[in-house]
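REQUEST FORM: STRUCTURE PREDICTION
Request ID: SP-0412
Submitted by: Lab K.M.
Chain count: 1
Length (residues): 228
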Amino acid sequence: MLWLTSVHFTETCDPGLPHLITCVQTTDASETDMQQTQLVHEELARRELLPQTHIVDAGYVDAGAIVESREQYGIELVGPVSKNNQWQAKAGKGYDQSGCSVDFEIKEATCPQGQKSVHWLERTDQHGHPNLLIRFDLKTCRECPCRSLCTRAQNKPRLLTIRSKEEFLQLQRIRKLQGTEAFRTMYAMRSGIEGTHSEARAITRITPNSLYWSEKDCFTTPSHCCRH
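STATUS: Completed
RESULT:
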């Protein structure tokens, strides 16, 4: 019988301190990397080894994981989130979702032309995750001189489907952050995990599928596991 597995490592990366493996998760290869983020944090919490900042590969992070890590464990989950794949962003022109301001207090969105939304519906998607459907006025959208920059719909108004408030805000924040030099410098610390990857392959003959690189605080505070 052939048994395919994935191995997920978590390792400290505090400057000036030894790099220590704090968690090893072995899972069925059919499980996604994203499914492991919560499990790793649960294990680190159980052993009182939670980091302040957790730098991970793109497969382990999305807006939901960022919010969940912060709210449940006080962890700043850091990793490259998916790019804005809306057609306006890909074309480099037009009004993608980030061009609209969203006021969650009064439940209203404003488009780049200053028009206000007329409909705000809180709902859940097919996976049970909360999201919002925001609609602008049909007549206003039809008469807008910038309509071609906003929507490709022939006869419908502009619609926005966004995540919950916290996920929406975190996604916008991290997309801006990951284009900065500060983010690239911090994320470069994760590259050292490839050495652990190579050693694990050479010594145990396993092939780690995905790897974590975690630290207590990138700049000042040593990891729990380094103190003990």
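NOTES: The chain has two domains: 5-81+178-227, 87-165.
Reviewed by: T.R.
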